[in-house]
Amino acid sequence: MAHRTKAGAKNGVETVIVVDRGHEYLLDPLDGELLQTLTFVKREGTKYPGNIGHHPGTTMQEVLRALIDRAEYVNSQLPCAETEAGIGLLKAALFVFEARAARYHDRQLTATLDEIVKGVGKCPRCGHVGCASHALPSPQNPFGENDERETEVGRLSP
Protein backbone atom coordinates (compact mmCIF):
# COMPACT_ATOMS: atom_id res chain seq x y z
CA MET A 1 0.00 0.00 0.00
CA ALA A 2 1.30 3.45 -0.84
CA HIS A 3 1.93 5.85 1.99
CA ARG A 4 -0.97 8.22 2.47
CA THR A 5 -0.93 11.63 4.03
CA LYS A 6 -3.60 13.57 5.89
CA ALA A 7 -6.78 13.66 3.89
CA GLY A 8 -8.01 16.88 5.48
CA ALA A 9 -11.17 17.74 7.29
CA LYS A 10 -14.65 16.41 6.72
CA ASN A 11 -17.28 18.90 7.86
CA GLY A 12 -14.50 20.75 9.67
CA VAL A 13 -13.52 17.70 11.73
CA GLU A 14 -10.60 15.34 11.15
CA THR A 15 -11.96 11.81 10.81
CA VAL A 16 -10.80 8.22 10.78
CA ILE A 17 -10.71 6.96 7.22
CA VAL A 18 -12.38 3.59 6.79
CA VAL A 19 -10.52 1.63 4.11
CA ASP A 20 -12.25 -1.72 4.70
CA ARG A 21 -15.05 -1.49 7.27
CA GLY A 22 -14.27 -3.60 10.31
CA HIS A 23 -10.75 -4.38 9.12
CA GLU A 24 -8.62 -1.45 7.99
CA TYR A 25 -8.49 2.16 9.11
CA LEU A 26 -6.25 5.16 8.50
CA LEU A 27 -5.74 7.32 11.57
CA ASP A 28 -4.62 10.94 11.65
CA PRO A 29 -1.11 11.44 13.00
CA LEU A 30 0.23 14.13 15.29
CA ASP A 31 3.58 15.74 14.53
CA GLY A 32 3.64 14.44 10.97
CA GLU A 33 1.68 13.94 7.80
CA LEU A 34 1.83 10.16 7.30
CA LEU A 35 -1.49 8.51 8.17
CA GLN A 36 -1.21 5.56 10.57
CA THR A 37 -2.74 2.25 9.48
CA LEU A 38 -4.68 0.07 11.90
CA THR A 39 -5.38 -3.37 10.42
CA PHE A 40 -7.55 -6.04 12.02
CA VAL A 41 -7.42 -9.70 11.05
CA LYS A 42 -9.83 -10.61 8.27
CA ARG A 43 -10.98 -14.19 7.86
CA GLU A 44 -13.37 -15.90 5.48
CA GLY A 45 -15.86 -18.69 5.95
CA THR A 46 -19.27 -19.38 7.43
CA LYS A 47 -18.30 -17.84 10.77
CA TYR A 48 -17.43 -14.56 9.02
CA PRO A 49 -20.47 -13.58 6.92
CA GLY A 50 -19.86 -10.77 4.47
CA ASN A 51 -16.08 -11.00 4.54
CA ILE A 52 -14.51 -11.13 1.12
CA GLY A 53 -10.78 -11.67 1.13
CA HIS A 54 -8.53 -12.37 4.07
CA HIS A 55 -5.37 -11.00 5.61
CA PRO A 56 -3.46 -11.00 8.89
CA GLY A 57 -3.96 -8.27 11.41
CA THR A 58 -4.56 -7.60 15.06
CA THR A 59 -7.63 -7.93 17.29
CA MET A 60 -9.62 -5.42 19.31
CA GLN A 61 -8.22 -7.06 22.44
CA GLU A 62 -4.63 -6.36 21.36
CA VAL A 63 -5.47 -2.75 20.55
CA LEU A 64 -7.08 -2.39 23.98
CA ARG A 65 -3.94 -3.83 25.59
CA ALA A 66 -1.86 -1.22 23.74
CA LEU A 67 -4.25 1.56 24.78
CA ILE A 68 -4.10 0.42 28.41
CA ASP A 69 -0.30 0.45 28.32
CA ARG A 70 -0.27 3.88 26.67
CA ALA A 71 -2.73 5.31 29.21
CA GLU A 72 -0.74 3.87 32.12
CA TYR A 73 2.44 5.41 30.67
CA VAL A 74 0.81 8.82 30.22
CA ASN A 75 -0.68 8.58 33.71
CA SER A 76 2.78 7.89 35.15
CA GLN A 77 3.94 11.16 33.59
CA LEU A 78 1.01 13.27 34.73
CA PRO A 79 -1.43 11.38 36.98
CA CYS A 80 -5.07 12.39 36.89
CA ALA A 81 -8.44 10.96 37.86
CA GLU A 82 -9.80 10.99 34.31
CA THR A 83 -6.92 8.89 32.99
CA GLU A 84 -7.32 6.46 35.91
CA ALA A 85 -11.02 6.17 35.07
CA GLY A 86 -10.18 5.65 31.39
CA ILE A 87 -7.75 2.86 32.28
CA GLY A 88 -10.46 1.15 34.31
CA LEU A 89 -12.93 1.43 31.43
CA LEU A 90 -10.42 0.09 28.90
CA LYS A 91 -9.73 -2.89 31.18
CA ALA A 92 -13.48 -3.47 31.56
CA ALA A 93 -13.91 -3.41 27.77
CA LEU A 94 -11.09 -5.93 27.36
CA PHE A 95 -12.67 -8.19 29.98
CA VAL A 96 -16.07 -8.00 28.23
CA PHE A 97 -14.59 -8.97 24.84
CA GLU A 98 -12.73 -11.93 26.37
CA ALA A 99 -15.90 -12.98 28.25
CA ARG A 100 -17.85 -12.84 24.96
CA ALA A 101 -15.26 -15.06 23.27
CA ALA A 102 -15.37 -17.54 26.16
CA ARG A 103 -19.17 -17.70 26.03
CA TYR A 104 -19.15 -18.06 22.23
CA HIS A 105 -16.78 -21.01 22.54
CA ASP A 106 -18.78 -22.49 25.45
CA ARG A 107 -16.03 -22.21 28.05
CA GLN A 108 -15.56 -20.45 31.36
CA LEU A 109 -13.28 -17.43 31.55
CA THR A 110 -11.08 -18.28 34.51
CA ALA A 111 -8.26 -15.77 33.96
CA THR A 112 -7.94 -12.84 36.34
CA LEU A 113 -8.29 -9.30 35.02
CA ASP A 114 -4.53 -8.84 35.39
CA GLU A 115 -3.89 -12.00 33.33
CA ILE A 116 -6.33 -10.81 30.66
CA VAL A 117 -4.66 -7.39 30.48
CA LYS A 118 -1.20 -8.97 30.23
CA GLY A 119 -2.41 -11.56 27.70
CA VAL A 120 -1.27 -14.47 29.89
CA GLY A 121 -2.21 -17.78 28.27
CA LYS A 122 -3.25 -16.14 25.02
CA CYS A 123 -3.89 -18.68 22.26
CA PRO A 124 -1.43 -18.23 19.38
CA ARG A 125 -4.15 -19.11 16.86
CA CYS A 126 -7.24 -17.16 17.94
CA GLY A 127 -5.66 -14.66 20.32
CA HIS A 128 -8.07 -15.29 23.19
CA VAL A 129 -6.98 -15.74 26.79
CA GLY A 130 -7.71 -19.18 28.23
CA CYS A 131 -8.61 -20.78 24.91
CA ALA A 132 -8.63 -24.55 25.10
CA SER A 133 -10.30 -25.05 21.71
CA HIS A 134 -7.10 -25.17 19.70
CA ALA A 135 -4.19 -27.52 20.09
CA LEU A 136 -0.86 -25.78 20.49
CA PRO A 137 1.19 -25.47 17.33
CA SER A 138 4.13 -27.77 16.70
CA PRO A 139 6.77 -27.97 13.95
CA GLN A 140 4.75 -30.76 12.30
CA ASN A 141 1.46 -28.88 12.63
CA PRO A 142 2.19 -25.15 12.81
CA PHE A 143 -1.47 -24.15 13.16
CA GLY A 144 -2.51 -26.62 15.87
CA GLU A 145 -4.20 -29.96 15.76
CA ASN A 146 -7.73 -28.63 15.33
CA ASP A 147 -6.86 -26.28 12.49
CA GLU A 148 -9.73 -25.76 10.04
CA ARG A 149 -7.79 -23.86 7.38
CA GLU A 150 -8.82 -24.32 3.80
CA THR A 151 -5.84 -23.18 1.80
CA GLU A 152 -7.82 -23.00 -1.46
CA VAL A 153 -9.90 -20.08 -0.13
CA GLY A 154 -7.50 -18.90 2.54
CA ARG A 155 -10.03 -19.30 5.33
CA LEU A 156 -8.77 -19.05 8.91
CA SER A 157 -11.08 -20.28 11.67
CA PRO A 158 -10.87 -19.15 15.28
Q: Strand pairing plus helix content: what structural class?
A: alpha+beta
Number of strands: 5
Q: End-to-end distance, in Å?
A: 27 Å
Q: State the domain count.
A: 2
Describe the structure.
This protein has three helices and five strands, in the order βββββααα. α1 (60-77) packs antiparallel against α2 (81-104). The strands form two sheets. It has a three-stranded antiparallel sheet with strand order 3-4-5, with no helix packed on it. A two-stranded antiparallel sheet has the order 1-2. The two termini are 27 Å apart. Mean pLDDT is 83; it is low at 140-158. It has helices at residues 60-77, 81-104, 113-118; strands at 9-10, 13-14, 17-20, 24-27, 36-39. The relative contact order is 0.11. A hairpin with a 3-residue loop joins β3 (17-20) and β4. The protein folds into two domains: 1-44, no CATH class; 58-147, no CATH class. It is of the alpha+beta class and 158 residues long.
List the helices and strands and how they pair.
Blueprint: E1 9-10, E2 13-14, E3 17-20, E4 24-27, E5 36-39, H1 60-77, H2 81-104, H3 113-118
Helix pairs in contact: 1-2
What's this entry about, in short?
The chain is an alpha+beta fold and 158 residues long.
Primary descriptors:
single chain; 158 residues; alpha+beta; 2 domains; three-stranded antiparallel beta sheet; two-stranded antiparallel sheet; 3 helices; 5 strands; flat; disordered C terminus
